[in-house]
Each structure stands twice: as C-alpha cells, then as structure tokens.
Backbone:
C-alpha cells in the first residue's frame, strides 16, 4: 500500500470509528433522558454508559443542549441525521397528493410514528426549559419552527380548494399545531391507552372534520 493510500485508508477508518462512537453517545443519551429526564442526565452519566470520556462527547457532539437538539432532530427525521421537514418522505408524499383529505391522512399517520419516538424527548426538553436557559432556547427554536411548518402545511391544504371557508389559515395552522403536539399524543395514545395506530386514524378523521369543507351531496 502506498503512503497516500495508507493515509486515505487510515483517515477512512478514523472517520468510521468516530461516527460509531458518536452514534453510541447519542443512543446512550436517548436512553438516559427517557429514563431519568433531562436534568438528571449528566454528561458524566452519558459518558459512562457510552464508555467514553466526557471530552469525547464535547468533541463529537457538544454540550447537553446540543445533544438534546440532536436527539429531537433524529426523532423527527426517523434517521440518524436531521432532515428538514420539507424533505421528509411523508412531506414529499403529501405534496404529490391532490386531495386534502388524503394529505391529512398521510400526515396524521406520520405524526403517530414520529411522536412514538419524539414525545418523551420533547416533553423532557419542555420541562427543562422552565429552569435552564440553554434548554429554553432549544425549545423555542424547535417550537417556532414547528408552528411555521404548520402554516406551510395549511397553505398546501388551501391550494386544493378544500379548506373550510370560515376558517382562517392561521387558525387552521394553530389547530394542526395543537393536535400534532407531543402532549396531545401522550394524553390519548399513552395515558388513555389508544396506541399509535388508533391515534393516527382518529387524528386523520378529526382533522378532516375540523379543517375541510363537507363534500358536495
């Protein structure tokens, strides 16, 4: 192996090792945050569970609020990396669909899948935001982005001509924003034991009734 090829090989191996370590850190953080909550999950505890030193966590991921943002972004995307809302599979499927009712059904099913992963993390972030400024900044950033995304979603629904005429786009977006929240999911899917499938089916039906014009008789 030439010196150049050996350097390339060594660099590739190091990157792969670093990425594997980063995934282990994030997986360990997720387990601890869900089990203990954000405040009780220390960087030292994450390091112990992931079998790394704390400096490695700061180097490969960052401080605790950055780590929690990464957990939330991965839960939203359903992958090991953040994906912008408009680029997620369900968003592309919704844009390709012309019927507003089917768009809402696609989204409701996506919400049920996402909240199964996201709700414990997002609620931990919400609780931490009450006392920790860094967590509050992450909470506000993600919450504001979620509200803005709902306005894009409602604009897409309105383009079908099926959105209720007596409902303003802002009110429609706020209704979707409230009903796709982790809090709402936990109340029905978990505390009332509906489960994700029943929740997703009900959510699609509720949104159709609340947001769309009645079909002509």
Residues:
């Amino acid at each position: 192996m030439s010196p150049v090829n050996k350097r390339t090989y060594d660099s590739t191996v190091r990157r792969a090792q670093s990425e594997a370590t980063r995934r282990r850190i994030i997986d360990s953080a997720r387990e601890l945050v869900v089990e203990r909550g954000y405040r009780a999950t220390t960087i030292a505890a994450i390091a112990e569970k992931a079998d790394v030193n704390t400096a490695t966590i700061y180097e490969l991921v960052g401080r605790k609020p950055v780590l929690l943002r990464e957990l939330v972004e991965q839960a939203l995307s359903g992958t090991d990396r953040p994906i912008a809302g408009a680029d997620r599979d369900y968003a592309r499927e919704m844009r390709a669909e012309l019927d507003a009712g089917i768009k809402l059904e696609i989204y409701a099913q996506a919400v049920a899948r996402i909240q199964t992963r996201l709700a414990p993390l997002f609620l931990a972030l919400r609780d931490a935001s009450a006392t920790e400024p860094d967590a509050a900044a992450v909470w506000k950033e993600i919450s504001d982005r979620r509200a803005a995304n709902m306005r894009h979603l409602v604009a897409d629904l309105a383009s079908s001509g099926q959105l209720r005429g007596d409902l303003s786009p802002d009110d429609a977006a706020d209704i979707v924003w409230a009903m796709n929240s982790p809090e709402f999911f936990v109340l029905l899917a978990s505390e009332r034991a509906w489960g994700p499938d029943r929740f997703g089916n009900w959510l699609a039906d509720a949104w159709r009734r609340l947001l769309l014009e009645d079909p002509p008789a």
